[in-house]
Design a protein that fits this description.
InterPro entries: QTRTD1, Queuine_tRNA-ribosyltrfase, TGT-like_sf, tRNA_ribo_trans-like. The protein is α/β, with parallel strands linked by helices. The protein is 41% helix and 17% strand. Helix 15 (379-404) packs across helix 16 (408-426).
Length: 427
């Protein structure tokens, strides 16, 4: 694989870790770019859940990189092979960069199905076992712009032994070497980039070893795996990310898998992560909830007061009712969202978030969304996904602005501190 076309241009590094920049040279022709820290566009089989392509593109600040997963695609391999022109054309994804990951970050995989030669993915028809040969045959059929290498990522459970963690690192490196060998000899994958996967569970030495060895391979970037929500507390995650990124080259992007909650995104971006998966808005939508947290760092005092007042309306009296963030279950509601199925919203005629410019907030009220949800109308998912995607993308824009203008601490107070303060005042 002769030199990667992907190039990370950093414009700012804060406190030696938080990175601001642009990822250039994306796509087969290299015409796309993506600002970092940034997030990918989460999809099911190339489609953002609940949204048509036309509806999706009414949103601004959409990522130029679309994520698809082999767990969705593997069972359709024969159809794609017959089609012959790759997944992007098959799904009508014309002006985007296609990234293919192994697992769906919003769908946990049952552990215990990994061997020295295979990993398993789960589609709608059940388990599909992948050897390196089958994995690479799928990549040739999909023809993504970049993909993550095959990896053994089953070490995120807290009771995983050191021996098992070491084996996962060894397997993942062996898989990477085999994938690169097939890749380099493949006509169909010319111009496609490979991201190496860094494993190591919760063991610092193995994380460092995995990062150091993966960095020696000719990869375009790195996937930091096994650190997803529920696997460990944030302090340990931050420590491990800091140790890994010290071993990784500065000019290649780091993609963190399985982390999407705003508080965790902030901490991980501060630790040196560049890219995140955007499955969190989908999870919030599936719960019948709307993202409702403040990230305004505007210097305009009047605007800031208005935003704060609205934020108080969003959260005062609701954060406690919604419950605290839990470590072990991604299906649990978080304090960054409001539950619109709750009866209190049946006569609440405010938008989901005051000042939000999305179609849902500009045209509908909380009471209407409550009605759609309790009557099981499909439109509920559409409107919630529009808002949650727009709100989440706005949060990432604010994160980049905060790094650029030395306002990370202010952003953290807006997203976290003021909410805590409001709950304490209420108590």
């Amino acid at each position: 694989m002769a030199g990667s076309r992907i190039e990370l241009e950093l414009s700012r590094v804060v406190r030696g870790r938080s990175r601001l920049g642009v990822l250039k040279g994306l796509g087969r022709t290299g015409q796309h770019s993506l600002e970092v820290p940034g997030c990918l566009l989460y999809t099911h089989f190339g489609t953002v859940p609940h949204l048509t392509q036309d509806t999706l593109h009414t949103l601004s600040n959409l990522s130029s990189v679309t994520q698809v997963t082999l767990s969705n695609i593997a069972e359709h391999q024969e159809v794609l092979e017959e089609f012959k022109d790759g997944f992007k054309k098959f799904a009508g994804l014309h002006d985007t960069v296609l990234y293919c990951s192994l697992h769906d970050p919003a769908a946990p995989c049952p552990p215990g199905y990994t061997t020295n030669k295979t990993v398993s993915v789960w589609g709608s028809g059940g388990r599909i076992e992948l050897t390196v040969a089958k994995f690479m045959a799928l990549q040739k059929t999909v023809r993504p712009d970049w993909y993550q290498s095959m990896a053994d990522g089953e070490t995120w459970h807290s009771n995983t032994s050191r021996k098992r963690v070491r084996k996962s690192v060894d397997r993942t490196l062996a898989h990477l070497d085999e994938c690169l060998l097939v890749h380099q000899n493949s006509q169909e994958l010319q111009g496609v980039e490979v991201f190496g996967v860094v494993e190591g569970g919760d063991i610092l030495e193995e994380r460092v070893r995995s990062a150091r060895e993966t960095a020696k391979r000719p990869v375009a970037g790195f996937c930091l795996d096994g650190l997803q929500t529920g696997s460990m507390d944030q302090a340990l995650r931050t420590q491990l990310i800091a140790a890994m990124t010290k071993e990784l080259p500065e000019d290649k992007p780091r993609l963190l898998q399985g982390v999407g909650r705003p508080d965790e995104v902030l901490a991980c971006a501060e630790a040196g992560v560049d890219l995140f998966e955007s499955f969190f808005p989908f999870q919030v939508t599936e719960r019948g909830c709307a993202l409702c947290f403040s990230f305004d760092i505007s210097p305009d005092p009047e605007r800031a007061v208005l935003e704060l007042n609205d934020d108080e309306k969003c959260t005062a009296g609701e954060t406690q009712a919604n419950g605290d963030v839990t470590l072990d279950d991604q299906t649990q509601m978080t304090s960054f969202e409001i539950n619109l199925k709750d009866k209190r919203y049946q006569d609440d005629f405010r938008p989901l978030v005051g000042g939000c410019g999305c179609y849902c907030c500009q045209n509908h009220q909380r009471a209407y969304l409550h009605h759609l949800l309790v009557t099981n109308e499909l439109l509920a998912g559409v409107l919630l996904m529009i808002h949650n995607t727009a709100h989440y993308n706005g949060f990432f824009s604010a994160l980049r602005e905060a790094i650029a203008n030395d306002k990370l601490d202010l952003l953290k107070r807006r997203v976290l501190g003021e909410r805590v303060g409001q709950t304490e005042r209420k108590e």
